[in-house]
Structure formats: C-alpha cells, structure tokens
Amino acid sequence: MLRCTVLFVLLAAAVGAGKYRDNIPEPTRKWKYTATLDHFTYSPESAETFVLRVFEYDTHWKQNKSGPLFVYTGNEGPLESFYDNTGFMFDIAPQFNALIVFIEHRYYGESIPWGSSEAAFTPDGLRYLSSIQATADFADVIKYYKETYNIEQVVSFGGSYGGMLTAWMRLRYPQLVDVALAASAPLPMMAKTAKPKQKFFQIVTTDFGAVNKRCPEVTRNGFTKLYETVKSAGFEEAVTSTFKLCKPFNMTQFDHLVGWVRNSMLMMAMVDYPYPAEFFGDLPAWPVTAACNLMLDEMDESGDEMKALAAAAGLFYNGTSGTKKCFNIYEDFIECADITGCGTGPAAVAWDWQCCTEFQLATPSNNVTDMFPPLQWDPKIVGKYCSEKYGVTPDPVRASLNYWSADFKAASNIIFSNGHLDPWHAGGVLKDVNPTVKAIMIKDGAHHLDLRGSHPEDPKSVIVARKQEVALIKQWLAEGRAKKNRLDF
Question: Angle at Cα 360 formed by Cα 346 and Cα 51, nearest 5°?
C-alpha cells in the first residue's frame, strides 16, 4: 500500500492551515478503455470485456507531440489516490515533453468487471484478478497509445505494489516499456529470493527509536500492560476507556485491537514524510516523531504505558484534525491474509484475494528485535483462512516464476528506489544488479517519497535521488533512440 528536482518546480499547494499536497493539475482527459476480461484462455469468457479508467494529462506533450509516454501502473486502490500523490511525473514531464497516463488496476476503484461489486467480489468473480491479468491490461492500453499517437518510447512509473507492476511491465513487455522506475517495490520478499521479512517490524522499531530511545520501550511496555489488563477484573471498561472505543470491549476483540494498534504504527513508519500529507490519513509532518512525542507526553502526565500506546494509535486513525470522538476498530482496520493489513472497503477484499493467491508478504514480529507482541506467520493458518473464505490457497511460487524470481541479472533499464525509513525497504532491491538495473537508496525517505512532488521540506537525499532518476531515464531513452537509428540505418 505508494511515494524533484526539475526544470519546472511545482511547489505543493496549501491545503488547510500549513498543509501541503502535490500540486497536481486536473486530467485533461478522463476516459474508459474497454479491456479484455481474460487475456489467457480461449473460452467464452475471453470474449467478455469490462472498462478500465484512464486519466490523461497531455499539456506538455501536445505542444510538439514528440515526447515519450509516462505511464503509472495503478495500485490496489482508486486511481485518484495515486494520480493525486505522484507529483514527480508532473514535475519532470516538461523536460521530456511527456504525455502522462494513469491506468487503474482491475477490481479497484471503478474498474470493476461486470460493473458490479456483487458479481465481482465473489470467489467465482475474483478468479480474473491477478497481477498477470493486470499487466496485460496495462500492455493493451500502452499499445493503444503508441499506435494511436505514434509514440515511440514509454517510461513506466509505480510505487509499492504499483512499483512491482512497473518492474514486471519492463520484464514481460520490453517491446512496450523502455524504462521503468519501481519505487518501494519489495520484489525479493515476494519472490522469496531473500529473507528480509524478519526485519519489517524491526525497521518500524528503529524508526521510533531514532526519535527517542524511550519510544520502543514505552510501546513494548504498553502492549505488555494491555495483555496484563485483560486478565484482571473490570478490564472491559479499562480498555474501552483507554483506547476510546465506540463499542464496549470484550475478549473477542482482543486480537483485532492489537492488530489495530500495530497497523497504526507501521503505517506511520511507511508514510513518515517530512511535511503534512493526506495519502493514508490526515497526518502531520514526520508522523513517527509526532506519535513518539504523544507517547512521551502521556508518560510524563500519567505514567501509564497503555494510555501512551493508545495516544500514538489515535494519531493515525484520528489525524491532526481529531474529529473522531471514538474509534470503531473494525471500520479502521480489516484483518486479512496480509499480516500488515488490507486497507478498508471493497479494495480490502480484492487485496485479500491477491494475498490468498499470488502474494505472501509475510512479516512476523518477535518482541525481541522489535517492539511488537510475538506474531508468527504460519502458511498453514493462512492457507486455511483462504480456503475457507475463497476456496483457494496461496501459490506464490507461480508468481515468482512468472516474474523471474526477482533475478534481474538479464534485465535492463529498471530503477529500484527505496527509502531507509520505509519498513518495506528490507524486501527491496538494494544494490545495483548490473549497469542498467540500478538501486537508489534514500536516507531520509519513507514509502516512495521520491514519487511525490517536490516540496520545500524535502530532505537532500530525495532531491539527489530524483536527479539521479531523471539522469538515468534521459540516458536510457537516448541510448534507445540511438540504437533504433542504427538499426533503421
């Protein structure tokens, strides 16, 4: 769940008091592409179609119609979320005279097969949801643009799962995608060619400890006190009051409450941006610092670790506006096959399905190297859950084989960027693979910060990273043009 130094610097627009967001222009065109439901079988279903939403911005391209296509491969959510938070593409488009296109991922947002959630989100309807089907959708849309507008070169962008898709587009469709920028894409974790999963919650803990070494200790003690509290008489009222729950607490909610708190902290670590942002919620600048300070303030006032834990979690779910009077933990957080959560709404069902079929992004915690209660990931438990809910069991080996098992030695023209603050970076490509598969590390970067628009508070490390990305894109596009000219000659 995705984030410039350029000739055209677009400063983020103010939203509310002191708020900034990417200053993204409205699409010059919103349209729907008629996509094939099943790209890979010869059956009556392969003749069925549905519509994919596409957002287009052609202001910089239409001046001479000579630039490349910049395409964003949509993530596990509505297209607006990524269009509005990927300012980097808009910032650098004038340098390339680029045509910008965002394509929505099937089964997310409004790109729902049969136009009906009731039909699509059933075990039978979900069988057409996979990354392989999605990349085939993207390929068809790219092919349409190349042929319709006589565009020769394509640069693909994506963050998080969208970054995985972008890298896969370069691997599966190199004749369509010339360069790929995959930000915060944990491909080795998915392919199980590396074992970074143990470090996910350790990185979250390190992020909080970097603010103040007391914060991991308070968090660990807060969880311990929660576990102890539910063993005592009258715990229902104590937990309900401390965490400001809308409904009276009972032990059937215990595991979900722990997950709700854990999710708040890992999400704030993911989006630990240096300025207020609203990508995953109404959060202040450096939300990990803000949450840590809330915990320490509560400790100074009450000395109660469980209250301090609740204060930190409340920041994520209530934001800086603080409009919620109480929390409905089942609306805020949905447990699923992804141990780090599946979001909320219909998108949660779609991502749950994908984690029950293709992806096993396992991230256990141990309370030794991290500050969270022990949580072991057991494939048998996940398999049982998926079988009972959807009638399927995870098969990540197939996805791994389809995408080179994250072995990119033979690949080319892919940039993998990762931020040190992002807990997902442990699952990413962190070193150059070859001269044209490059890794860029961003010291003060959170989850795909480099894909967000330039901002006055950007740390130097992300400014440098964006310059490197622009230079590589220019270099590889130029080399591609030179190679084509030689072949044409």
Answer: 35
